[in-house]
Amino acid sequence: MKRIEVIVSPDGSTKVETKGFTGSTCQQASEFLERSLGQKRSDHRTADFYRTEASQTQQARQQSS
């Protein structure tokens, strides 16, 4: 399942995390939020960023077998 989480800290800083996206689709999906929230201080890419849609589909098939 794809989702975008926005975490707001007590000091007002925000963190945008994408879950279930592969490749650069995570950046495309969260871009509107990042622009709305203001200046980006850092960018951290998870393993899902480097995973392709095909490898994720294959992994899901293996888990359901």
From TrEMBL:
<feature type="region of interest" description="Disordered">
    <location>
        <begin position="1"/>
        <end position="23"/>
    </location>
</feature>
<dbReference type="Pfam" id="PF11211">
    <property type="entry name" value="DUF2997"/>
</dbReference>
<dbReference type="InterPro" id="IPR021375">
    <property type="entry name" value="DUF2997"/>
</dbReference>
<protein>
    <recommendedName>
        <fullName>DUF2997 domain-containing protein</fullName>
    </recommendedName>
</protein>
